[in-house]
Amino acid sequence: MDEGPFNLIIVGGGTAGWMCAAACAAKLDPALYRVRLVESEEIGTVGVGEATLPQMKDFNDFLGLDEVEFMQATQASFKLGIEFVNWGRQGDRYVHPFGTFGRPIGEADFFSYWVRAHNAGQAAPLFDYCFPIVAALQNRFMLPNGDANDVRNAFAYAYHLDAFLYARYLRRWAEARGIERVEGRIVDVERDGQTGNIAAVTLASGTKVAGDMFVDCSGFRSLLMGQTLGVALEDWSRWLPCDSAQAVPSVRSPDFTPYTRSTRRPAGWQWRIPLQHRTGNGYVYSSADISDDEAAATLLANLDGEALAEPRVLRFKAGKREKAWAHNVVGMGLAGGFLEPLESTSIYLVQMAIMHMLTLLPPGPAIDPALPAEFNRVMDVEYDRIRDFLILHYIANDADAPLWERVTTMDVPDSLAGKIDRFRHRAHVQAYRDGLFGPPSWQAVFVGQGVVPEAADRLADMLPDDQLAERLAGLHATIARGAASAPLHADFVAHYCPAPAP
Fold this sequence. Notes:
alpha+beta
């Protein structure tokens, strides 16, 4: 007997909900899966990130979106990395790039050769050997040219975008491809008395929406995962102490940078994200170290242009749900956990949850326990590795305020402590098979915040000093010429994807 399609219900819209809906529309057979999204116009959403990682381009390509159309619809600009100001020592700045340092020289990796030359006083700063950094700091941008032998191709790029406009764009796209949107505020959640699974949600209108499986995209409320199933939040605030943020848009600065900026403040850090029509700004801070009024004053005093609204306050706790998939519910976005946006990972984590869920979706209402077990394993890896990377930013600093004094002396996860020791002694960063942030990312933050290895891979000793110096000088000049040949970011955007005024 034909039992009909598998019913998948997405609870909540916003960035997470409509990303999930769009992916389902693109990749699930509508004869086998019926997908509905329940959201209420009465309930506001928290925009999940305005700065992204290069993996977002992969997601858009996975859907088959047109890049120009997407960028115009979301007022997007390009992003080559993140500039960190005052994070190591006051007055210092560095860029975490979406690209590699240098190019192959010999048996060892480029970074090992740079460490050898640097420690002998014979190298330029590490960041001068990275094309996207040199281009970004000149406010220049170009698309990768496809030539693997060209240093101008050794990078990826991401976007700055309006998260609300992105959700709206994906909604139109998904509904045009068969996704059903159900308007209504959820007032009750019904569970199966035998299995404990979610059976249905009831709306204020009295409508009942039943499903075989649910995706919780209800934001910080975590309506299904937290409130209904009682899946606890694993608290990481002992490592990531900021618990508040204030966000405010401002007039777009003439300095239209192809990078995000993060500036360390006494009680946290401030972000700056340039979009085509405005600049996004925010202050992420520890409420134990500064009042909301003081935080707002600090934020407003450090804008590059006139504020376009009053600062909006958000409260959060760093951490993740103990299970990302419990019973027949997958928690996605803020409903599944929150890591501050220091490295623009919010949309990435939504994307990873979507991709793993699509791979592991059951063919029918019966869910094999192996499926949520694998989903939880891979999402734990994603969160844990991002957590460690964020903690590194906090502990490698000059401790010039109470917050920063506390974090420099805190115990860190063993997984991070071992990584720091290996880097200090031998410049070693393990390349992950799963999870975010490869060796260049760790190298950028370590070196940018003043942690330079004592020595590197011994294979880097084999190249004679004069040959190493020649190779480094040639690469330095090639990157400088390549960056200077790229158009200004503002000119490239104006030609490639100009968005209409909102």
